[in-house]
Amino acid sequence: MKSDPGAASQRSRALKTIVIGFAAALALAVVAGGGVWALTCPCEGTPGFVLRGDLTEDPVTDWSFANDVPLCQIQISMGWRPHSLNLNCMASPDGELFLSCSSAEQKYWCPRVQTDHQGRLRLDGTLYPVVLNRVTDPAILDKAWTARIRKLQKPEVQRVQPGGGGAPPPLDAARPDTWWTFHVRSAQAE
User: Fold this and answer.
1) pLDDT, tens digit, 9 for 90 and up, residues 37-49
2) Least buried of 91, 96, 112, 174, by fewest C-beta within 10 Å?
3) pTM score
4) 3-state DSSP call for residue 148?
5) Are 105 and 172 in a shared domain?
């Protein structure tokens, strides 16, 4: 039995068309999915890309209003790309702002924050240019931890915690050694 070279060529072209169509559809899905992710995340525990919102250039010296926002979002530069995520932020009674990072050494972003690391903080849709510094002084760590525990007493804050919250931590909860905090200051206040 002889094979028809024209039919084989036609099958080859059809297969090639199917493969190219599938590859194009896959590429389109990846680009569309990436676009949605870049424009909408960070989402719960999934990091995001660029934070969007109304940018304010006004310097902030009293961050007390951050305690009224259940969850904060921070964007920092990770080499060539931005990296954003949801996290707890809390202001001390004197208006200093801190970011909370539990099990910090296991997180992607915490160990990469350098001294005077530039970033953007989003609170209720408003973007603030900020500068981050890791805190290592035990007295300031305790100050930030106390502010964190106080903020976590609010039911609206507890609801957005991983696992849906639950009971707030006791007011006298000990600060774990694996917990890090970063002091936040307005980049415009310099």
Assistant:
1) 444 455 555 557 5
2) 174
3) 0.77
4) helix
5) yes
